[in-house]
Amino acid sequence: MVQIVEMTALVLGGRVLALAGVLGLAACSRPEPPPPYNTAIDMHTLMVHVLDPAADAVWAASGHVVTEAGEEDLSPKTDEAWEAVETGAATVAEAGNLLMMPGRAPEGQPDWIRHAQAMTAAGLKAQKAAETRDKQGVFDTGGEIYQACLACHDQYVQGNPAATVADESGR
Length: 171
Description:
Layout: H1 2-28, H2 43-59, E1 64-67, E2 70-73, H3 79-99, H4 110-131, H5 135-158
Antiparallel strand pairs: 1-2
């Protein structure tokens, strides 16, 4: 009788193990759920409506303009104007992160990531400069933002047709 119980337990144990294996394989073959974010905004739209206005807010708030009437300091004059520069810089920093997201970053293009990281770093520095009301810092970091944009555009817009990998809009 003991032998029958042991054999029954062995057979049932084998079936349970086989069932667990089948369930495990079924779980592995399920497609991954989609990511929780949406990258439906194409590259052109992201640049025109997010990144360009944010960078423009930093660039427009630094330096001097010399005219016949004299020299004009473009630095912010009010707390609200400084806040607008800080917001623009923070948006530049986050836009760099957006450019690295799957669905936007072209695969196998490590330079794309490097350029986006440079943009994020420059945006964070510009945000800090605006937060501390550092006119020269905003000017200098505005230049860093410009250099990050230029380096990426030189490689991926003017110099490399792979730029369209992340922008399927055809623009």
